[in-house]
Design goal:
By secondary structure, this protein is of the alpha/beta class. It has 13 helices and 14 strands. The chain starts with a helix and ends in an 11-residue tail after the last strand.
Length: 386
């Protein structure tokens, strides 16, 4: 009996584990690290990819970038990709993508095409970071070199993550972008990248991650570059992990005190009061004194209270700045208050969702910020100069 079962089990394994019919050897694969999309003539798309050059990685002491870029124009991504494939000796693979760069003109026309392509592809890596190119083409960005990294796209991706960690931008994956596009109660916001030089940038250090790109549905509407509004947005969506705020010294307005953030938590809510929606933002934050330009002692109870209030007011003002941009200037709910309404008041949401941006722009806000100073570093009082 046991022998019969063993024979049957062996036959089943032989049938089911017959190998991968579509297996491709790794030596035949061209791994794509980054994709850039620009708008070409006749509303076609110019598709640029950055590919790893494996033989360069094998050279000892090699210090230059081990990548090459290919570009092609097509009516669809598949058409452009097939044109590139026709010039490559290896099978192009998009399973290791680190970065997706959307050209400004393409984003203004609408980004649906690349979203549809990525969602249908079983291989496309949706964890890749997404950024919008401002006043520069995506192709130019992918053609820049890196001094610090052997892969330029990885350098850009790491820069986005670093700036996100210190509260200067947000890191948005392709999957995050898809989810926000599918959210009826929130408009998409992506980080932007631009050139710091007037001529063509040669290295990644000639680029900078600066500001946000605001979308209405799938189309780019505007750019936000004000640093206070940018940080205000990050505070509202609870995406502040670390960062520094500067407040004036009470002794001398021209001297500043640096206050870092160790941890924070933001809660957003919407309440229906007298048939009017009230938007609520509550921030709880704590950190330390990280630097001061004055020799005064700021660890006394009165001074700690002063710093906590000053920090709270600074955060609150930044939040007010982004609300002015979103409510009064562009009338776009970029925070997700509509999503809260859809879950908290589902019947009401069905009636008003087509008018939500207008309702949002006229809704009053309640902003509360509570800051706590925990420590002053390794000293209490600074060195007294003679």
């Amino acid at each position: 009996m046991k022998n019969c079962l063993l024979i049957i089990f062996s036959v089943v394994l032989a049938v089911t584990l017959c190998g991968c019919w579509d297996n491709i050897e790794i030596d035949d694969v061209a791994s794509v690290l980054a994709i850039g999309v620009d708008l070409a003539d006749d509303d076609k798309m110019n598709f640029t990819i950055q590919i790893v050059v494996p033989r360069l990685l094998q050279q000892k002491g090699y210090e230059k970038n081990a990548t090459i870029t290919y570009s092609a124009t097509g009516r669809t991504f598949q058409e452009a990709l097939e044109k590139i494939q026709a010039t490559s000796s290896r099978e192009i693979s998009v399973g290791h993508i680190q970065l997706v760069v959307l050209g400004c003109a393409f984003a203004k026309k609408g980004i649906f095409d690349i979203v549809d392509y990525a969602e249908r592809s079983h291989e496309f890596r949706v964890q890749a970071s997404v950024v919008v190119a401002k006043n520069i083409t995506a192709k130019t960005i992918l053609e820049t070199s890196s001094i610090l990294e052997i892969f330029p796209s990885v350098h850009i991706m790491k820069t986005i993550k670093n700036k996100s960690h210190i509260g200067m931008t947000r890191n948005v994956s392709f999957l995050d972008m898809i989810n926000e596009l599918n959210n009826e109660g929130r408009h998409l916001v992506l980080p932007t990248i631009e050139s710091k030089v007037t001529n063509k940038p040669k290295y990644v250090k000639d680029l900078r991650i600066n500001g946000f790109a605001l979308f209405q549905n799938e189309k780019l509407i505007c750019f936000v570059t004000d640093s206070n509004a940018i940080q205000g947005y990050l505070w509202v969506i609870d995406d502040i992990k670390d960062g520094i705020l500067f407040v004036s010294s009470p002794d001398n307005p021209e001297e500043f005190i640096s206050l870092d953030t160790l941890r924070s938590k933001t809660k957003t809510d919407v309440n229906l009061v007298d048939n009017e929606f009230v938007l609520s933002v509550k921030v709880r934050e704590e950190g330390n004194i990280s630097e001061q330009q004055s020799t005064s002692n700021f660890t006394t109870p009165d001074m700690i209270t002063y710093l906590e209030n000053a920090k709270s007011n600074s955060i609150k003002n930044k939040i007010k700045d982004i609300f002015v941009v979103s409510q009064k200037v562009y009338q776009l709910d970029i925070f997700g208050f509509g999503d809260i309404v859809s879950k908290k008041y589902p019947k009401k949401w069905k009636e008003i969702k087509s008018e939500w941006d207008e309702i949002f722009s006229n809704s009053p806000t309640q902003i509360e910020v509570y800051s706590k100073i925990r420590r002053s570093g390794q000293i209490q009082q600074p060195t007294q100069t003679q």
